Target: OmpR/PhoB-type domain-containing protein
Amino acid sequence: MIHFTVLGAITASRAGEDVDLGSPQQRSVLALLLLRADRATSLDQIVDALWEAEAPPGARGTVRTYVYRLRRVLGTDSPIESVAGGYRLRAAPESVDFGRFKLAIAGARAAGKRGDPGTAAQKLREALECWTGPALMGARGPYLEREREELERLRLTAWEERLTHEVGLDELDAAEEVLGSLVAEHPLRERLRELQMLILARRGRPGEALAVFAEVRRLLREELGADPGERLRHLHQRLLRADPALGAPAATAAAAVPAQIPAGQPLFTGRARESAELTGLLTGAGRAAVAGITGLGGMGKTALAIHVAHALAAKFPDGSLFADLRAADAPADPHEVLGRFLRAIGVGPVPESLDERSALWRTSLARRRVLVVLDDARDHEQIRHLLPGTPGSAAIVTSVTRMIDLPGVPWIRLGPLLPGDSVRLLGAVAGEDRLRAEPETARRLLDACSHQPLSVHVAAARLLARPHWTLTRIAEQLDDDLRQPVVMHEDCKIVDAPFRRAETLLARPLLDAFHLCAVPDCSSLTPAAVAALLDLPPVRATANLESLVDAHVLESGPEGTYHFLPLVKAFARRRARDRLGEVACQAALRRLLRHRLADDSDWDERWRAETLAITAQIGDHAEARQSLLPS
Model:
């Protein structure tokens, strides 16, 4: 059998001996036939491939001569056949390096689809070993120049797929060594940059990963006048919000003792009370098989669940399982999740129906002590088949809503960080020196961030990105961007995202109430004031307020009052004007003002100041506003 190569120099060999293929033009004809192996190629196609519009006189005869010479040097077993009007080269895929490359790529993708990344990575290594240099070395012609570019694209794609599997398998050293040279050759290749950022995140170096994003964004804008693509922007957002799943290798082949919990945040701060409470629920006397964490997005529900799961690993010797149920965009199918869980604990074959999988899952857990983390669950229906059914195993569920149809399940409502903890978090990410230089400004900045972990991380990222700016300047810029944005910056969109998601869960009357309650310049609201603001009976106003508390967009305060976190109020006020319009906002303020002036039960200095602020919002002159208030 003759063996051919095109992924490097164009060569042919028989029994280990090289065949002299003659001139570059002859090699080009052979390369063309090899790339189109087992397909007929007409004389005109060969002429166009070699010369396009500049074909010399007698080009067809010249091609026939090249083929005659190739057949002579390839010998009696020459694979080049004559067909009507042209030629065809018959060759087994294994006899051509490009054929072996394609077979290995197909094998890798099949292994990836069946959840075997180890085999997929090995197949991709075999594919890339087919290359010995730049493709089609020694070939000439416009068509082959284009083919050379296409082959290089295929090679790069294979590298990206291989590195993706190696990163998923946590083979970071091998991946990082190759990735550096590939990025140097192709600095604008976004998938390579994404892998570079993932490796840095996995190694606990998020600041360097963010720097890589800043560099590629700059290069893309300078070279192409474009911004990074959606995948790279999404990874950047995950880094900014310190997504703990970035520290986790992808699920690998099934194992008897799975350990799927993602790496915990290296800068996990605070939550001592909540951690102790959750630990007690899952391990204490009369422990619950299921415990839930709920709260507004961005409060760190996933981070807390992962932190506690790692701390409890020794209590569950048969392993830990993790499922990102992605309620925010495309909810995960419990049928698919159950299949993964069963394979992970070494149970098979996996039944087809959901009910059969659920029964096998509970039967399997009856003999095991496993901890399951179900992150970002949508509702009871999505998770009921995934929960342990017997004592010994346990589950932590995180969700933006408290699932009342899970009877007996205790829920921890996660609110803002304690002020001291948010100071420590900001200092750990952005550096203690900058906080010590402006301690009062740091406290104001964190108050403006509502001590929400997500927004603290975003503020810290701005500090890191602008090392020469003062804390005061950062605080002023963030205040402008979040309250009166001219253009919404990418990191501010990240801060807004949990609030926008919360909006989608509110029915129309509640959405109106959420937005209008944020319009007045007052620190807290009573049910009577909200009844006037919304023009509703007091009973319905109270019901709306309680529903907004359940949705985590409003906080209940002392003596029956309610208030917003500053970030949530700024967002809701912007949305009120955008969605309901200035006329509706002004009408609501006038109703509230009439209510306050008619209520003489609490005319203290704060009442006076807030009522003046509301009249200012309506737009009355100072003299008119003063006349509205008692002397």
